[in-house]
Amino acid sequence: MASIDRTAYPRFHTTLSASELHTLYAPTEVERDFVTTQVREASQQLTLLTLLTCQQSLGYLPACDAVPPYVLQYLVQQLRLPPETGFHDTPHARARYRQLIRGYLDVHAYAAGGSRLVEEGVTQAAYTMSDPADLINVAIEQLIAHRFELPAFQTLDRLVSHVRYGVHQDLYARITAALSPADQAHLEALLHVHDGRSAFTQLKDTPRRATLGHVRQWTARLTWLEGLFTPQPFLRDVAHTKVQQFAAEAAALEVGDIRAIRDTPRRLSLLLCLLHRAQVQTRDQ
């Protein structure tokens, strides 16, 4: 699960200055008229106005018990209601308020096409972007731009994870589609352990700093790496960011971990990307 703190998913602030509170939650005269026209009782007016302003500042309707006291107190003052006024938040009333707000703001329910919009946007982005938090931000931007309510963060997180997984499976299939049986055998041989050491482990090791005194070690490493396999033709149509991501994923594994990956296209793709990164970095050094 992605951390909500690393995304742009809107949430209530712990505290707000007076000017920030005014900017985010001050109702216009038109909004006041809308509220007082639609409902009469003080608690109903407070609830409808609170949900209306929260929809505009957050992009979704929060639970009333999640609304910070400072927002409640501010809106009570804006409506000139008694200080003790509370929310009117029954299931029936909330459904009515939701429909009123959607019509007034011209926003769409997430269930009315929001998930399809997210899938399309995130699928396109996931072929170049790697961080789940960045993909969730893409989803949020798409929903806001097309005037959809935001779903719960967990809903976005699950959908983005599902889409990202599908994109990765497609990339693994693309990367390995042209590998011959002999090519696959060469890559699998990197995982064989001889005298307690594997070529996969050596891929992750590097000589000391690339100084003139160590140039022979780096030259020998490059010769060895280039003699293992040529991964570039299989990665030609894959974004550099994804190659780097898969290489980093492989580098974080031990030889036993990568051998345990039963998904052959994924295992071979990780090896190709790691080998490619090792060759590039060694040439650079």
Compact summary:
It is built from 15 helices and 2 strands. With 285 residues, the protein is mainly α.
Structure description:
- The chain folds into 3 domains: 4-107, no CATH class; 111-176; 181-284, no CATH class.
- It is an all-alpha fold and 285 residues long.
- A two-stranded antiparallel sheet has the order 1-2.
- Helices cover 64% and strands 1% of the residues.
- The two termini are 37 Å apart.
Largest beta-sheet characterization: 2 strands, antiparallel
Order of helices and strands: HHHHHHHHHEEHHHHHH
Count of separate DSSP helical elements: 15
Helix content: 55-70%
Low-pLDDT runs of 5+ residues are none
Backbone shape: elongated
Class inferred from helices and paired strands: mainly alpha
**What is the CA-based Rg, rounded?**
28 Å
Mean pLDDT figure: 92
How far apart the termini lie comes to 37 Å
- Number of β-strand runs: 2
Order of strands across the biggest sheet? 1-2
Number of domains: 3
Assess the beta-strand content as a share of residues: under 5%
